[in-house]
Amino acid sequence: MNIKRFKVKNTMSAPTARRLSWSIAAASFLLVMLGLVISVLALMTSGQGVTFSHQFFTPLLTATYCIVGALVASHHPRNPIGWIYCATGALSALNMLSVGWAMYSELVTPLTGAALARWLSHWIWIPNVLLPITFTVLLFPDGKLLSARWRPVAWAAGLGIAALAVGIALHPGPLEALGLNTTNPFGIPGGEAALNTLMTAAAPLLLAGIVGSIASIVVRFRHAVGIERAQLKWLAVAGVVVLVGNILGSLPWMIWGESPTAQEFSIVVTDVTVVSIVAATGIAILRYRLWDIHILVNRTLVYGALTALVIGTYVVIVGMLGALLQTGGSLPVSLLGTGIVAISFQPLRERLQRGVNRLMYGERDDPYAVLGRLSQRLEVVAAAQSVLPTIAETVAEALKLPYVAIALKEGEQFTPAAEYRRSSVFAPQDKGSMEVFPLIYQLETIGQLILAPRMPGESFSQSEGRLLETIARQAGVAAYNVRLTQDLQRSRERLVTTREEERRRLRRDLHDGLGPVLASMSFKLDAVHNVADRDVSAVRQMVSELKSQMQEALADIRRIAYDLRPPALDELGLVGALKEHIASYSQVQGLQIMLEAPETSPQLPAAVEVAAYRIALEAMTNVSRHAGARHCRVRLSLLGDLCLEVTDDGRGLPSAVRAGVGLTSMRERAEELGGTCHTEALPQGGTGVIAHLPLSSAYGAASGGSAWTPFVS
User: Fold this and answer.
1) Distances (CA, A) of 138 to 64, 75, 123, 560
2) 498 — phi, psi (to 5°)?
3) For strand 631-639 and strand 592-598, is the pairing parallel, antiparallel, or unpaired?
4) Helix (H, G, I), strand (E, B) or coil at 676
5) What is this structure's pTM?
6) Which residues of 508-517 are buried (b: 16+ CB within 10 A; e: fewer)?
7) Cβ pair 321, 337 in contact under 8 A
8) How far apart are CA 176 and CA 153, in angstroms?
9) Sheet-wide strand order for 435-441
10) Higher-confidence residue: 337 or 244?
């Protein structure tokens, strides 16, 4: 059996499907009303009077099947569920007409086709009853099987319905077990044994078809998200209504036994509850008020299960006490059972409510359990890159959310760092439908916790909001630690990259600059050796060239050494090197530079000295070239960190400034050490460069009492 066979071929246009489905609905309604009128006339004309019968509720079933079927078929012609409902409504109408026709022929006057009507009334109700609880459930909501593995369920349901219908249609009768107390005019005489075997074989097939159809709904629900999950919830509500309705409907039959009124009442209750399934599937497929379901589902599950448990408890208590005390259905036993049920009602309801809430909303009513689970999961996470995915997964699973993501702030943007989907088919909704909670650490927003509600358009309750805010605070600390780990990793990568780039530069300078010079000097020494005894003037000239090349080589060596670390820092220290550099400006273009620094300062880390020296020189170079300033102040302070300030009274920064090589170089030098460097326009005019380079506590303590002595260049 091909899955595609369960899908109406796309050869029918929407207008054609609409006309056909509503024509079936109209014809079915006319037939069922005609059957009802004939039945009433038969009872009144014969003098028996109108009595209570489930047949009078058949028009309600027919109208429900036909209207829902026509709506679904006209909007979704390729979904077979709409056509199944149309067919079921037509069969229900035909059943009502055949019953009325046969009744009138039996009670009033014989009519043409009475035997055919009686025969149809024997078996036509079978597909009418079984189709909605097998194929409708199996194909719900999109009209397709879940997969090819569900084909045996469809075969079992189809063969079971066909076998039971054929067995009853051809059985000579009567079949008192099914309420058919008359003979079958079209039955096969002598075929009782074979037909009984056929009907017996139909029972396990139908059981497999019904149970398999219900199982397919359970499997769909476990993997469904979004619209499909809401559709299945409507069907779940209808299923609970049917279950509770059948339990309530069977009570009169159990109490009053073979009473015709009790039997009719049970059938009526069953018919009315079936209407709920039809209505629920129609709402789900047509998506009319699809999302108004959560409270309905919650209350239906709670009170449906509560009703079943209360009734079961009452029956068990009364039955056990009656059997134990041999009192039958006495009033004291009934009162005792009622009292026990009344006492246990509220605790049972609360326990069921907690269970249903956990099923639908996760552990939102137990915030300590959510936080405890999150802590336990984070305790066993070894890799830093797994922390944020673990948080997202734990929150999604604990609160039954379809999508949870954590985004970290990078500049002014938030970049997703981890996300978790409870279903692989879930597609994140638009940003406006997501709930966003900021991740804050020490008053700084470092990220966002992004959550998709369980259903589109749904919002979190106040208790859920408080729980998610608490989770966001805990996740903020974890996100900050993750960001620190990532920054550390990037810093290590930059250090390795910088080291390798420096090695490459040294290799290039030595190989391309100093190497050829030394090679040339070696060749000239060989030449000097060869002409030393013959041409003194040539020797002198070559020695002079050798001296010049040696001086160039020494200059290259000094340049390479200076690029590695300025010698002035080793000889004079940071303050002395800055004084020497400031003195070399000697009033360039009328610029006066003042240095403010401690008279004595502790020995600073080599990396901090080089960074501060390079930043100060680059800042002073920018002042002399671009600021047009007359005064510049360089200030060093050692209070916890090394703070370098270079300010001037020049024209200041333009309104739109782009960071060039110099500004970028200063910022990167500071960030390599975990510090900061920024440039700003001063309120009184001019520009300021402020760099903070971190030091250990020992360095800051050593300079705490240093005096300030201005040095003016």
Assistant:
1) 20, 20, 23, 80
2) -65, -40
3) parallel
4) strand
5) 0.46
6) ebeeebbeee
7) yes
8) 30
9) 413-421, 403-410, 444-452, 435-441
10) 244
